[in-house]
Structure formats: structure tokens, C-alpha cells
Protein: EamA-like transporter family protein
Amino acid sequence: MSLNYIVPIIIVIVSNIVYHITTKNIPKDANSFLSLAITYLASTVIAIAMYCLTSKPSRILMDIHKVNWTSYVLGLAIVGVEVGYIYMYRAGWDISRGSLVASISISILLIIVGILFYKEHIGMYQIIGIVCCIIGLTFINLD
Structure:
């Protein structure tokens, strides 16, 4: 496996760990949406800096024409994810169980999306894995 294959998943894993730890620690009396606005301001600064490091800033007008509706829908989805996790943790979900239940549920639903809309195929091993995940979700939520 090449680094081009491994590095992105490492970034996703490390970033998700930091994400869940920081989200769990947002003060309960802080306004969720103001907290997110500050988060997005920091994200905007970082994203613009990364754009400038990886592209010619003089091309921004040409590059912006390549952006479509997906950026706006992604923005809406990100707000939903963020506020959902904030409320989930404020409602008392453990960091270990809450993120696991969400991730497994998302994964199972994305398998269905992949099959229905992207013509992806799954084999018997993947079906067994899905069943194990569903059984795992049941056990994780038993007290």
C-alpha cells in the first residue's frame, strides 16, 4: 500500500479523535451555534491558508467557478453533524458509545446508499460484517 492510500485515513482517524474529544469538552453553557461559528471561522482561515499553499491564489476566480452546489449542501450537512454531536454529548452520551453508535449506523446506511445509488457490490463477508455490526450495536446499547 502506498502512502497516498494510508495517509488520508490516518488524517481522518486522528482528526476524528481530536474532533470528538473537543466536541465532548465544549462548555455546556456555551451557545452551540456561536461555538460552531467560531469553529467555522477558524476552519475558514485554515482552509484559505491551505488553498494558498497548494494553489496559486491568483487563480481563485477561475477555481471558484469549479465549485458547485455540493459545497453548500456539505456546509449544511456539516452544521447538522456538528450540532448533532454537541447535543448528543450534552444529552449524556459517553464519548466511547455515542461516536461508535453513530459511526456504525452511518456505515451501515452508507452501504445501502452505495448499493442503491453507486452500483457498489458487497459479498458474503461484508454481509456477515454488517450483521456483526448490528449485533454489536445491540450489545453496546444494553445496560
